Amino acid sequence: MTPAARLSAAIEILTDIETRRRPAADALKDWGLSHRFAGSGDRAALAGLVYDMLRRRASSRWLMEAETPRATLIGMLVLQRGETLESLAGLFNGERFAPEPLTTEEQTALASRKLADAAPDIQADVPHWLWTSFEAAFGADAVKEGQALAERAPVDLRVNTLKASREKLLAELEPLHATATPLSAWGLRVPLGPDGRSPAVQAEESFQKGWFEIQDEGSQLAGMIAAARPGEQVLDLCAGGGGKTLEFAAAMDNKGQIFATDSDKRRLAPIHERLSRAGARNVQVRTPRGALLIEDLDGHMDMVLVDAPCSGSGTWRRNPDAKWRLRPSSLADRQKDQAAVLKAGAKAVKPGGRLVFVTCSVLPEENDASVQAFLADHSDFTPAPLQVLAKAAGFSGFARFASSQGLGLQLSPNRSGTDGFFVTVLHRA
Ligand SMILES: C[S@@+](CC[C@H](N)C(=O)[O-])C[C@H]1O[C@@H](n2cnc3c(N)ncnc32)[C@H](O)[C@@H]1O
């Protein structure tokens, strides 16, 4: 496909996403199935275009003074990819498979409008209804934070210290230009390819051998703050596919015991294969049978991780679709889920133990507010000082990472160069 033909296809796919209200991944997959002539390079470039349009949906539309997929594409090409009126004319040339030439209105909009004149939520590409809570989270930095969440994210890896060292893995992944991440001692970062294409790290022999996992540096830091130690008894209550379980097994050097469970057994299922590839031998997976099977752990755990279900607003760089699909009702549902998992997790913590609460959200409703509600009902739990959490994560200061109410640390692309994560540690008396 020519670059111009890819633009026409990107407009078609965004139209499909919006008219049928379907997830971007489904629309991209279907387009690929019904256009077999498109090669993997075309499909990757199209995915890059569509996700970039979603990242910059509000600002692009404002710039073009139009709400259409075509306007979204033109605005994104200017705002995100640095195209100009002149360069766009070469692509929007009306030739076979290329989009129609720019109209007079489009040219006027591009020549006269400046994004700095737009409302802050538009400049930040944050849904209007969420702006109040976004501002509560980030105050004067809110626009900068939204813009950082509208960028593409690199691919972060965590070296599995049960099998390899970071130096050894860096040497192995040198052809992919891997570098050490700045904060996590276990982190490596692999840059994206042209068109935002993700490097095929899972095809590497070192991945097959279990030397690393794909895990954002912010998620690694959340695990470091939880500070699982060799010999401890640990419950990972919302283990999902096991990202943090695997991190704990390595941090504990396979010593002690981790219980990994999740209310959704389909999400938990991949953990078995991942544990065996990683050589993690101190994990008991508790697959739920209708109910979670953890009553026998009550009051026995040194540490319980509640990596809670949330809106995922901290991962908008990777999943910009979620930003526009989020609804007030689902945010309220996630808050109820958070109350339930915190309550369930608290029961398993032994006196003197700790409950670690993590979300991949930047919204105060899901972070400080959920912790506040929990503490109101659990007077035997006390939040750890932020200095202690920041030190565990290797931060030189802590004030810059304090959440809006100071009940935990708030990581974000702008603050820590990671996905957005909230982390707090609550000690049981
Ligand atoms: C953020 S994800 C976990 C990610 C995982 N810890 C990782 O690091 O890869 C949240 C998980 O919580 C699970 N969950 C939701 N409600 C739950 C509940 N009441 N009890 C246990 N798990 C629950 C979801 O199925 C989902 O897998």
Any idea what the shape is? globular
Helix content: 40-55%
CATH fold node name of the largest domain: Rossmann fold
How many β-strands, per DSSP? 12
Model description:
InterPro entries: MeTrfase_RsmB-F_NOP2_cat, MeTrfase_RsmB-F_NOP2_dom, RCMT, RsmB-like_ferredoxin, SAM-dependent_MTases_sf. Belongs to the class I-like SAM-binding methyltransferase superfamily. RsmB/NOP family. It comes from Labrys miyagiensis. Keywords: Methyltransferase, RNA-binding, S-adenosyl-L-methionine, Transferase. The active site is at residue 360. With 429 residues, this protein is α/β, with parallel strands linked by helices. It has three domains: 3-118, no CATH class; 155-214, Sun protein, domain 3 (Alpha-Beta Plaits), CATH 3.30.70.1170; 217-428, Vaccinia Virus protein VP39 (Rossmann fold, 3-Layer(aba) Sandwich), CATH 3.40.50.150. Helix content is 44%, strand content 14%. The chain contains 21 helices and twelve strands. The protein has helices spanning 3-19, 24-34, 40-55, 57-64, 69-79, 85-91, 104-112, 120-124, 131-138, 142-149, 166-172, 205-208, 217-226, 243-251, 265-268, 271-278, 320-325, 328-348, 368-377, 386-392, 413-416; strands at 155-159, 179-180, 187-190, 212-214, 233-236, 257-261, 283-286, 301-307, 349-359, 381-383, 409-411, 421-428. Strands 5, 6, 7, 8, 9, 10, 11 and 12 form an eight-stranded mixed beta sheet that branches. A four-stranded antiparallel beta sheet has the order 2-3-1-4. The protein is globular, with a radius of gyration of 23 Å. S-adenosylmethionine binds next to helix 14 and helix 18.
